Every structure is written in structure tokens, then in C-alpha cells.
Amino acid sequence: MSSQNRLDFVRFASQEGVLRFGEFKVKSGRISPYFFNAGLFNSGRSVGTLGQFYAQALLDSSHDFDMLFGPAYKGIPLAAATTIALANHDADARDVPFAFNRKEAKAHGEGGTLVGAPLQGRVVIIDDVITAGTSVRESVEIIRAAGATPAAVLIALDRMERAGADDALSAHSAVQDVQQKYGMPVISIASLDDIMQLLDEDATFAQYQSAVSAYRDRYGIKG
């Protein structure tokens, strides 16, 4: 994805209130100077635009794929929106199937935990971010159990952040760990690099630049 497209996405996320700056206690217990909550893409227009960004990032990656898989629950609307965007893409329209899972097995009707197209071929897992990698692990297990191949993970934002206590930080980010553990690429629409570029270029956000930079120096990896 081009640098301009990545920056456009960061601006879009900020305008939608999905990307915010300030002080936020995140799941790890850290106080982060920024917060990204993809659940706030919650209208038809915003989810439609988000799907276009996902589709473009996937196409620009040039990785081969046959279908998308959206892990419950956040991945479900992301998979649907992205396949719609792929089908309507101006330059490279593709009618791509998708599937998702339920958290609990359905005992009636078609039963089971999988909904949508049969899992087959090269499957891209789509989610918002990767934190502990639990969703990816569960998705990989589901895809492999169906006889298909996990081909890549597609996310909105790579935080480029190491995990662990301050005195025992992991050597790699969650994204890097997923890439190494499963031997497949993680494609992101944008990353912390692009957030930093927005802070550098837009005076509106200048007051947050030093805090985000310090946080990255402490917990980040180099892109």
C-alpha cells in the first residue's frame, strides 16, 4: 500500500474517532498516548470505506489468496466489507468468498461453528489488530482442520509494539511473532510509522508528538 494511502487511512481513523490521542490504559496495563478501537467504525459509510482500505492493502501486497476468514466477532463485518470492496474494485474486481466462525456451536439447522463459504485453498485471516495472537492461533487451527491453508493475516493497524513487563520486554512485536510462528505474512493497512508521519506533518496533532515518540522509544520495534 502506498505511503499516501496509509496516511489517508490514519487520517480517516482519526476523523472517525477510531484513532485517538491522550492517555489510555490498554489491555497490557500500559498507559498509551494513543488508542485504536476499530469497533468505532460503526456506520455503513465508515465500514464501507474501511473495507476499501482493507481490499486495497490486500491487493497491493500481491499475495495469492482464494478467500477470507473473519474470526468472531470483530472479523465478521471486516470480512464481509472487504469482500464487497473486492467485488466492486475499479481496477481488479474479484468475487471472493468468505467465511467466519461462531463462538458456540449451533446444535440445529446446519450446525457446527463455521458459517459462509467452505474453507478451501489459500485463506486470508482478517482482523483489526494483533495483540496476543490468540485470534490468529484459533483461526489457523480452524482453517487447517478444514484442509485449507492459512495464507496471510490482514489487519488494520500494526502497533509495532513489544509485549511484556518493562524489565522483560519481548524481542519481537506480536505481528513479528505471528509471522515467525506460522510462517505467513501479516499485511497491515497502516502502522505506528504512519501515525508518526501524521504527527510530524499535521500541526493539529503536534501536542501529542513527543508522548507518542517517547512511547515508541520505550516499547516499539524498528520498522
From TrEMBL:
Chain ranges of the Phosphoribosyltransferase domain: 56-168
GO BP terms in the entry: 'de novo' pyrimidine nucleobase biosynthetic process; 'de novo' UMP biosynthetic process; pyrimidine ribonucleoside biosynthetic process
Keyword Magnesium in record: yes
PANTHER family in UniProt: OROTATE PHOSPHORIBOSYLTRANSFERASE 1-RELATED (PTHR46683:SF1)
Binding of 5-phospho-alpha-D-ribose 1-diphosphate, residues: 27, 73-74, 102-103, 106, 108, 127-135
Protein name as it appears in the record: Orotate phosphoribosyltransferase
Catalytic activity from the UniProt record: orotidine 5'-phosphate + diphosphate = orotate + 5-phospho-alpha-D-ribose 1-diphosphate
Keywords: Glycosyltransferase, Magnesium, Pyrimidine biosynthesis, Transferase
GO molecular function list: magnesium ion binding; orotate phosphoribosyltransferase activity
The enzyme's E.C. designation: 2.4.2.10
Annotated positions binding orotate: F35, F36, T131, R159
Pathway where this protein functions: Pyrimidine metabolism; UMP biosynthesis via de novo pathway; UMP from orotate: step 1/2
Coiled coil: none
GO cellular component terms attached to this protein's record: cytoplasm
Bilayer-crossing regions: none
UniProt xrefs under Pfam families: Pribosyltran
Role of this protein: Catalyzes the transfer of a ribosyl phosphate group from 5-phosphoribose 1-diphosphate to orotate, leading to the formation of orotidine monophosphate (OMP).
Family: Belongs to the purine/pyrimidine phosphoribosyltransferase family. PyrE subfamily.
Known cofactor(s): Mg(2+)
Subunit text: Homodimer.
